[in-house]
Amino acid sequence: MSMAEVQSLDNLLACRNLLKASVDNSTALALALDQTGPRIAELDKRLTLLEVAIRPGGSKNGSFAAVRDHISLALGPAVAVLKILDSIRELEKSLLSDSGPDSDIFSYISTIRQFEEAMKFLTGNCNLAIQWLQGVTQFLEGNFVADDQYILSVKRSVAILEELLATGEQARRNGELLCGAFAKLEISFKQILTESSAPVGLTNSSTSTAEKACNAASPLPGTILRKLRVIVEKLNGSDRIKNCISIFVEVRSLNVRNSLRALDLDYLEKAIKEHDDFGDMESCIHDWSKHMKFIAQNVLENEHRLCKEVFGSLASHIWTGCFAKIAVDSGILSFLRFGMSIAESKKSPTKLLRLLNIFSVLEDLRMDFNKLFGGESCNEIKNITRDLVTKVVNGASEIFWELPLQVELERRSSPPSDGGVPRLLSFVTDYCNRLLDDKSRPILNQVLRIYQGWKHEKYNEGLVTNQIYRVVRETAVNLDAWSEAYEQRALSYIFMMNNHCHFNSLKGTELGNLMGDSWLNANGKYKEYYSALYLRETWGKIQAFISQDKPVSSAISDSPKKWLMAFNEAFDDMYKKQLNWVIIDESLRNKMHKLVVQTLVPSYTSYLQKYSLVVEQGGVFYTVQSLENMLSTLFKPKQVKYTSSSTISSHFTGKQRNAVIDQFRFTLTAM
């Protein structure tokens, strides 16, 4: 206890003793007056005539009975003051004890309330006792029976009560004792909240119905909530709710950060700073989707519920403002800014898929966001979310509308030198499959519907289908243009064979189902058509050297060996030309191997047998086996460039994928 508190208690104790002595004197005076009353009444009768004769204006002395009544009425409040002082003394001991509210928070708050009521009661009774004693003083001063000692005692009692009243008002104003008690309540509030808080764990799967039902329960036990609420209500009534809110925000914000600490959220800031130069953005968006749902549906949902449970008895803006501070401290703005960095990145086809992913997450969380951030206190979060949705919808729609023109602008590029499937074609078909799958297509339709609505345009349900048709049509035109760029006609046939085979292989995919069986079958027929053209243009001409009875050139004599020599030279030349040509599809490659072998080997074997020519291994001419071995090495890719996968980037890795994306990005930027 401080020196000021000790001095104040000593003053109260001295006042109490002095007041008690005064009350005792007043009681004695009242008894004396009761005994003197009959005698004075008799004297009063005898002196009436004399009094009238001497003082015709009347007596200044009052009724002794009236004096007695004044004293009796003053005694009640004075005695009450003494009893209240004793109660206050005991309450002070409880409030100033070292144990504080830890043992029983409800009893401690009850003691505070009793102390406050006692202080109010003390003030009221002091005022009443002062008024009555002042009346007694005035009455005694006008009576001849009044002893100066009695009058002095009464005046001293009045002075003591006035000093006590002044001391009580000062204590109520300054609230030193109550401030200490309230500070102990705040400490207990923080301790109870801290000990009861525990981080929320991230599950490996999305929140299930059972988990959501479990999450609907309060984050804290009922006994803890009752303690917190009773402290909040008491501190709010004492104008100290701001300190309570600050403590709550501090503790629960720390609990939120502990819940997120294990998530490794470094990618948020890196993506915001580095934008397009950031690494594996797809992986980051996947993590962002999972973490965004976790923080909204689990972490902040708990905090929102707890704020309402603890501060719900107060005005709504108090607990919503408390939650808003915790939400900001949680880092939710960093999650939203991550999405904003994607929306503000450079245009590219892959950006469309990223934006659809972001929109899907925001749409899934729309009801949660409306519930959590609906109040005015969360305006900052609401505004950023609204801006993010706007940029995502506008950005995704713009890229989608530009896709056909983007494909058309790629027509000026060169086809693959090996006659294979252009990276652009493989990219576009996989890209269309992604847009048409069950996950992306509903989201894309919703985004485009919103976009059209903002422009006050009617949405056409076949919009996505028509746009994909346009993309495929522009791709086919590109293939025709590229095929004409080859100097060697046979290589252009290989090129068209590969690409029609690629289209034909889309059967069973989303794009294949959209284009229909007739389109798929037509590409299959074109594949066979260009296969036949290729064989006739290449190995069919070589086969003529050994299938005719006459030489194909006048420069070659009728010698079978010279004919064979001419065949070998033509074969070597053709083989060297086709050494770097590829057929991507393995089944088509095997089929073409068989067709080439069937075109050459039987005729070659028959020719050797017809002229009884024996070709030795390692000699000038090819053996049948060496010819087959050489033909089997044709059309094989140097590395596996194109493989089936459900992901758009599966066909390309490293520089290959980046080259295609950069090429598309350049086109979109140029537009």
Automatic annotation (TrEMBL):
Q: Which domain of life is it from?
A: Eukaryota
Answer whether the UniProt record assigns the keyword ATP-binding to this protein: no
Pfam families documented for this protein: Exo70_C, Exo70_N
Q: Name one GO biological process term.
A: protein transport
Q: Which residues form the Exocyst complex subunit Exo70 C-terminal domain?
A: 287-632
Q: Which UniProt keywords apply?
A: Exocytosis, Protein transport, Transport
Q: Name one GO cellular component term.
A: exocyst
The record's listing under InterPro entries reads: Cullin_repeat-like_dom_sf (IPR016159), Exo70 (IPR004140), Exo70_C (IPR046364)
Give GO terms: molecular function aspect only: phosphatidylinositol-4,5-bisphosphate binding
Q: Does the keyword Transport apply?
A: yes
Query: What Gene3D superfamilies does the database record attribute to this sequence?
Result: Exocyst complex component Exo70 (1.20.1280.170)
* PANTHER family referenced in this protein's UniProt entry, alphabetically: EXOCYST COMPLEX PROTEIN EXO70, EXOCYST SUBUNIT EXO70 FAMILY PROTEIN
Annotated function? Component of the exocyst complex.
Q: Which family does it belong to?
A: Belongs to the EXO70 family.
Q: What is this protein called?
A: Exocyst subunit Exo70 family protein
Q: What organism does this protein naturally occur in?
A: Hibiscus trionum
